[in-house]
Amino acid sequence: AALLAASFPYIGLPALRAIPLAVLDRLRPVPPAFLQQLAADRDLFADLPPGVQRQVWELDRSLLASHAAPLVAAYAGETGTLLRALDAGEWVGGGGGRGGGAPSSSASARPPRAPRRLQRAGSPALKKLVAMVGRSPAVYRGVCDLIAARVREAPGLVTAPRTAGAAALRSQLLMALHDAGGGAATDLAAGDPVHKLAWTL
């Protein structure tokens, strides 16, 4: 902490920035006063080690939202997500008067979609969200709250492809942490009350 206090005033100088950044990366936890200053400088934030960024996001929910919201929107617009949502729409919306939501013949003629696990592995937005969360329960809760708010505030039906894609992200983020296997990511997933339901589905 003493070394951070001595080196932090020079963090704005590119030639000396490496020293306070190295100290920040090794200090657990970083004192809140320093985190508040880091949150205020958006350009400096981009240079912070991931573990320090998470600590800043834990302290500043609005900054977390500003970084996570574009990824939530990007996931909802990815091709794999939209195709899954359209498949769900075939069931939820009904099959053109076939009674009870049976899929249309064109839906049954389509080739099967890739398993969800492969879709998760191929999603750039989901990978970035998992990296943001890391081992932080607070960041995970913040991202889940952001997803829930996006679905609540969406106009129209939840079955609209982009809204359904955003809703699916809640379980897919959880299952991406489950897929990571071992360590804190698994503990984080297992601690979510909906883990068993999402894993079963």
List the helices and strands and how they pair.
Blueprint: H1 2-7, H2 18-26, H3 32-40, H4 42-45, H5 50-59, H6 61-77, H7 79-92, H8 105-109, H9 116-121, H10 124-133, H11 137-153, H12 161-180, H13 183-190, H14 195-200
Helix pairs in contact: 3-5, 5-6, 6-10, 6-11, 6-12, 7-12, 10-12, 11-12, 12-13
Question: Could you explain how this protein is built, in words?
Answer:
Helix content is 70%, strand content 0%. The chain is mainly alpha-helical and 201 residues long. The longest helix is centred in the last third of the chain and has 20 residues, at 161-180. It is elongated, with a radius of gyration of 21 Å. Residues 88-107 have low confidence and may be disordered.
**What structural category do the secondary elements indicate?**
mainly alpha
Helix content: over 70%
Spatial separation of the terminal alpha carbons? 47 Å
Q: Determine the mean pLDDT.
A: 82
Gross morphology: elongated
Written as H for each helix and E for each strand, in order along the chain, the element string is HHHHHHHHHHHHHH
Give the gist of this structure:
By secondary structure, the protein is mainly α. 70% of the residues lie in helices and 0% in strands.
Keywords:
201 residues; single chain
